[in-house]
Write a structure and sequence with these properties.
The protein is built from eleven helices and four strands. By secondary structure, the protein is α+β, with helices and mostly antiparallel strands. Strands 2-1-3-4 form a four-stranded mixed beta sheet. Helix 1 runs parallel beside helix 3, helix 4 runs antiparallel to helix 5 and helix 4 crosses helix 7. The protein starts with a strand and ends with a helix. The mean pLDDT is 96.
Length: 219
């Protein structure tokens, strides 16, 4: 029996983009169901009753929640093509460490850049750049974080690039002059069709953030 794979997602979510990239890398066909986050579907609420958030991967009727957990699930279930996590236990632990770092730092700092002002925004902007520079050090001279092929950390991190226009325009700063090695890594990732087709246009993401800011009374 063929696998039935459904992805409950929202097009602008960097967390959902992770799973889109991984499924594309693995060559897995799936049904994509974009969710209205203001009017959550019964399927989403049933599939993720604890957090009620996207993305949710549904594999043969069983739901897997939280993007990093679902990303690891994809890698373990479809392990015959494009492995994301290394086989070596130590290297696996390091990949998970940096993926966790991305989860704990990049999203929250990026959000602070476009939702705050003044000193708080400046502090978030500085810490955001510091985190990117730290990731540059970890990348070193490698093509990708795991070596010569796209891996777990790359797939975890590169979706946030689709939000860089948001961070830069509202934060009034430019990332590439500060972190050229990071942007060079992004461009290598974008050479892969699995990445380029999974990341939405930055201007489209910017436009929806403008709408969100208006609704929050920030415009």
């Amino acid at each position: 029996m063929a696998d039935e794979v459904v992805l409950l997602d929202f097009w602008a979510s960097p967390f959902g983009m992770r799973l889109r990239i991984a499924l594309a890398e693995k060559g897995i066909k799936y049904e994509y169901k974009d969710q209205d986050l203001k009017n959550k579907s019964p399927l989403l609420l049933q599939s993720n009753p604890v957090h009620k958030k996207i993305p949710v991967l549904i594999h043969n009727g069983k739901a897997v929640c939280e993007s990093l957990i679902a990303l690891q699930y994809i890698d373990e279930v479809w392990n015959d093509k494009a492995p994301l996590l290394p086989f070596d236990p130590y290297l696996r632990s390091q990949a998970k460490f940096w993926a966790d770092f991305v989860d704990k730092k990049i999203y929250d700092l990026g959000r602070k850049v476009w939702t705050t002002k003044g000193e708080e925004q400046e502090a978030a902007q500085k810490e955001f750049i510091d985190c990117i520079k730290l990731l540059e050090v970890e990348l070193g001279d490698k093509s990708f974080f795991g070596g010569e092929t796209l891996g777990f950390v790359d797939v975890t991190l590169v979706p946030f690039y689709s939000w860089f226009s948001v961070y830069e325009k509202f934060g009034n700063f430019s990332i590439e002059p500060e972190c050229p090695k990071f942007i060079a890594w992004v461009k290598r990732c974008l050479e892969k069709e699995s990445v380029s087709k999974s990341l939405p246009d930055q201007d489209k993401v910017f436009d929806i953030v403008v709408e969100i800011r208006k609704k929050l009374g920030m415009e």
